TrEMBL record:
Enzyme Commission number(s) from the entry: 3.5.1.88
The keyword Ribonucleoprotein is assigned to this record: no
GO biological process: translation
Active-site positions on this chain: 148
Record function comment: Removes the formyl group from the N-terminal Met of newly synthesized proteins. Requires at least a dipeptide for an efficient rate of reaction. N-terminal L-methionine is a prerequisite for activity but the enzyme has broad specificity at other positions.
Name of the gene encoding the protein in the UniProt record: def
Necessary cofactors: Fe(2+)
PANTHER family, alphabetized: PEPTIDE DEFORMYLASE
Protein name as annotated: Peptide deformylase
Binding site for Fe cation: 105, 147, 151
Family listed: Belongs to the polypeptide deformylase family.
Amino acid sequence: MILPIVAYGDPVLKKKAKEIDKDYPKLTELIENMYETMYGAYGVGLAAPQVGLPIRLFLVDTEPFSEDEDLTDEERAQMKDFKKTFINAQIIEEEGDEWAFNEGCLSIPDVREDVFRQPKIKIQYQDENFETHVEEYDGLIARVIQHEYDHIEGVLFTDKLSSFKKRLIKGKLTNISKGKIKIDYKMRFPAMSRKR
Ligand SMILES: [Zn+2]
């Protein structure tokens, strides 16, 4: 089932999300629905707060990047096979010199900006079976994980922009929160839900 994606301005996107355990109700179904929602919107990642749930769960599937002509063959091959569910994730380490990448977000349609992040991460998380893993990632995969991880920490990529850039996109962000935007996937807008 495709879930509506919460738009910029909803307070759930600013909350630090809570850990869950295996008794979380209908978790398997939720994960399935989140994948369906992400694929339906052509995203490479989706975090639970984006479907209105302040819990530490996000998914990543970088397959769409496997057709990106700016990447090397090796990178593209890597992107093709990276699909993973992260539960109760904690980034333990981030290192290296920050690099810029043009990011977007399903909760903030039509806004893309360069965001600076460190290239290497070490992350601890649980998989769908609640087995714990500690893994290291770099490059574009690390980038997507960092973006999704920020969501469960209540941080959006727009929070990381300079105050100048923030001022430039302010009007656009206000329009998104009011639902004044054309999108081809299902969304839930904060200004509209308040009226109900
Ligand atoms: Zn996002």
